[in-house]
Amino acid sequence: MILGTYKNFEEYLKAVRELSQTLLISSENRLSLEDGIPEDLVNALRDIGLFGISIPAEYGGLGLSMEEQVRLTFEFCQASCVYRSRFSTTIGLTSQAILDFASEGQKEKYLPNMAKGLCTGAFALTEVESGSDAGSLKTSAKRHGNDGWIISGEKRYITNAPQADVFLVMARTDPTSTGSDGISAFLVDAGTVGIKIGDPPRMLGNEGSHACYVWFENCEVPADSLVGGQEGRGLKAALRGINHARLHVAATCVGQAIRLIAEMTEYASQREQFGKPIGEFGQIAAMLADSQAEMAAGRSLCLDCARQFDAGDNIPFIDIASAKLFCSEMVSRVADRAVQVMGGLGYMEDLSNVPRLFRDVRLFRIFEGASQVQQGNIARSMMRGY
Ligand SMILES: Cc1cc2nc3c(=O)[nH]c(=O)nc-3n(C[C@H](O)[C@H](O)[C@H](O)COP(=O)(O)OP(=O)(O)OC[C@H]3O[C@@H](n4cnc5c(N)ncnc54)[C@H](O)[C@@H]3O)c2cc1C
């Protein structure tokens, strides 16, 4: 357990809950005002070990089981999901690919600093012409004598690009290929000559999180930046991280739904119209109850996936796709009801948290595999046996 500070996971969870419910929730307005997560708050995330939750203890992380990570996410993500975005690309998309596919030297180089929050990983897969169809990406990596590689290409929507110390870059090493077989993964230090990062575009929500264009202009990287020293495993490595990240996103949706339910329930209990609390009107009660029931279903789905994840090597791909699909759609429905329950206050950005939460959660149906992509994966898997 983290530096021996906490006796067991339950104590650690309690400390994370307290951090989220006090400092983080009360500081949410700073995220948009300062267009980023102020460093004192990032330090609070570092100090409590959040950058290391998924990294094994031998590399300095907390080595939490997936069930523990998911339970922690339910609690932590009752505060703005922008906080989570600051360490999500490190704990999921990058560190998990390194753990499963990198050489021991690469693990030693990156994981201990990632666990301490001193090395932020960013995951560079998406391009202008390859979004959901990630296997069609065009960024290239060409051999440069025996000494290394030259990476050229344009990536976009890369979360934490301005904060990154290292990019996990997916690039095509086999120019004759058109699909995923010819794609390899590279660990590219952010200071490498030829990397340019665009200004963060303004987004519908998640103010304070940055998802940018990144250009690799004839970037020379050493031979040992190829993950695990093997070509052609780029999308496999990406998928490993993405499975982890998808389950974390599903758990994030549950945390955000718990918060939205608390906001709307408090209002429905206190706001009186026609001489009684509005929560006593059947239509309002139905919106509260449906939200609670759907959140509880999402929570159970996440825990079930996490337990399967912990039980063996076979990551439950289809169950994780179902959890990502269900929970991201669920939290959007809950957010919409929260706006409705709160009436005009649900629409007033400066007077209530709900409009911001409503805008933030819309993202979850798009990234880490959009809902339609999850539906396609699930249906294809269902039909395979017939
Ligand atoms: C805030 C934010 C942060 C992000 N962070 C990262 C990051 O850190 N690293 C990274 O690499 N990427 C990141 N992404 C990219 C994200 O993963 C992609 O946006 C996502 O995969 C969708 O790709 P696209 O935007 O190109 O949409 P498209 O693929 O063009 O999809 C558009 C629409 O078509 C639908 N569609 C596509 N294919 C099918 C199909 N086969 N069947 C049915 N419908 C389909 C989609 O569901 C969607 O509704 C981020 C995106 C956002 C918005």
Care to describe what's here?
This protein is α+β, with helices and mostly antiparallel strands and 386 residues long. It has 3 domains: 2-120, Orthogonal Bundle (Butyryl-Coa Dehydrogenase, subunit A, domain 1), CATH 1.10.540.10; 122-233, Butyryl-CoA Dehydrogenase, subunit A, domain 2, CATH 2.40.110.10; 236-383, Butyryl-CoA Dehydrogenase, subunit A, domain 3 (Up-down Bundle). The chain has helices at 9-26, 28-33, 39-47, 66-76, 81-101, 104-116, 234-270, 282-311, 317-341, 354-361, 371-383; strands at 121-124, 140-144, 148-159, 166-172, 183-189, 195-197, 211-222, 272-273, 276-277. The strands form 3 sheets. It has a 4-stranded antiparallel sheet, covered by helices on one side. A hairpin with a 2-residue loop joins strand 8 and strand 9. The longest helix has 37 residues, at 234-270. The chain is globular and about 80 Å long. The relative contact order is 0.11. The mean pLDDT is 95. Residues 89, 123-126, 131-132, 157-159, 203, 211, 363, 366-367, 370, 372-373, 376 line the site of flavin-adenine dinucleotide (FAD).
